Structure formats: structure tokens, C-alpha cells
């Protein structure tokens, strides 16, 4: 883009990324809880219960993996329930917004919303399989909610990428730009501009859209909706008003199939 089209950051929304792929903290917490229990065991059993448990865990380290997986599943379930309650109390938050890019028929019985950030590792990881899900379900409408939450301080790369994608939408080039932004390992303003140009976007026209107050309002509205929906990070998939069990493409595909069956 040109230097005379600065990006005006939107009001700061929640700046979190879904920690499903960050397990070290939870593992440390689980080990601490286990250690606390073992510390008190001799007073309850009168024998080296802790030593026996330690020996067992050393011989069967997969048990800790199973404990942490169960904890993760419980937290995911609570998070999904919180989102679903928020949607049920205010379904207007997911009503059709003509400003959002979408693929599929407007009259579709099944509608999938994805909230994402182009610098989110989880978003990037699931995009290839999610794209296959889109292609395999031409009767489903997929709505793309640009939710840039990973900027810090003067770094507004996520914000710029979201605005660039929406500018590409105005020129009918959203999907190829979206896919290229997700595939780019290290996004910068320069790489984003290159992606726009490589995909046939007129840069001068895009620069005006990126800096427009209408664009600012659109992204601010997405931030507000995500906060009202109690979303905790990206990506979040919502199928017919119900949050997917996880970010795994298999779970998203299963939720789509269930919604079709229902």
C-alpha cells in the first residue's frame, strides 16, 4: 500500500488467542496438584504411597497425558457451553451482515461462522482442511469473520491483514487473498501488499478501503460481537448457532453433518 494511507487501529478488543495448543502451563498445574496430593498421602496411608505412585507414573508416563487430555476436554466443554448460552441469549449477534465475506447460498439451511486472525497458528494449521470442508459442502454458507486480536503495541499486522482481505473482498478477490494470507508464514505489511498485488487487487483502490471509517466500523463491530459471544480466541467455528467442540476440522465437519441431519 502507499505510505499516505495509514491504518487507523480499531478499538482494542480482547487480545487473546485460544490456548488449545499451549499445554505446558496446564501440565505444570496438573503436576503441582498431583504433587500436593502425594505430599499428604503418607499421613493418610502410613506408607510410601507417594513413592509407589511415582514409580507407577515413571513406568506409565502416558497416564499424565490422559489426565491432561481429560482436563482439556472439560475446559473445552465449559467454553463451548458458555458461547452457546451467549448465542442463545442474543441470536442477532450472528445475523447476516452483508459486509462479511461469505461463500455458499444465502438460503442455506446450514451456516458456518469462523472467527479468525491471519497470524493465529491454529487458524493457519486448520485452513487447508477447512478449505476442503468448504469445497465439499456447496449447500452450506460459510461466513468469514475477520477478528484481528494478535496485535501488540505498535504492531498492527493482524489489523492490516484483516483490512487488506476485506479490501480484496470489495474487488471480488477475497478467497484467493484469504488463502494466501493464511499460507504466508511471516506476515508483514510488505508481504500483505505483495499478496494483494499477486492476486489481482488494485492497490490504490485497496488503500482507500483499508483506511476508510467504514472499514474501521466493520472490524469494531466484529470485536464487539465476539466479546458479547464470550469468545476466548481464534479460530472459533459456530455452526447454526452452536460452537464446534474444538478447532479440529473433523469436529467442524461432524457438526456440519449433524446440522444437515437435523
Describe this structure in words.
By secondary structure, the chain is an alpha+beta fold. It contains ten helices and five strands; from the N terminus they run H-H-H-E-E-H-E-H-H-H-H-H-E-E-H. It has helices at residues 24-45, 49-59, 62-89, 121-136, 157-170, 174-183, 189-198, 203-210, 213-228, 249-261; strands at 102-103, 111-116, 141-146, 236-239, 242-243. The protein has a five-stranded mixed β-sheet, with helices on both faces. Helix 4 links the parallel strand 2 (111-116) and strand 3 (141-146). Helix 5 runs antiparallel to helix 6 (174-183). The chain is globular, with a radius of gyration of 22 Å. It starts with 23 loop residues before the first helix and ends with a helix.
Distance between the termini: 46 Å
Determine Rg (CA atoms, Å): 22 Å
Q: Compute the number of strand runs.
A: 5
The total of helices stands at: 10
Helix content: 55-70%
The succession of helices and strands, N to C, reads HHHEEHEHHHHHEEH
Could you say which structural class the secondary elements and strand pairing correspond to? alpha+beta
- Sheet with the most strands: spatial strand order: 1-3-2-4-5
On the 0 to 100 scale, the average pLDDT is: 84
What sort of overall outline do the alpha carbons produce when their principal axes are compared?
A: globular
What summary fits the major beta sheet? 5 strands, mixed
Approximately how much beta-strand content do the residues carry? 5-15%
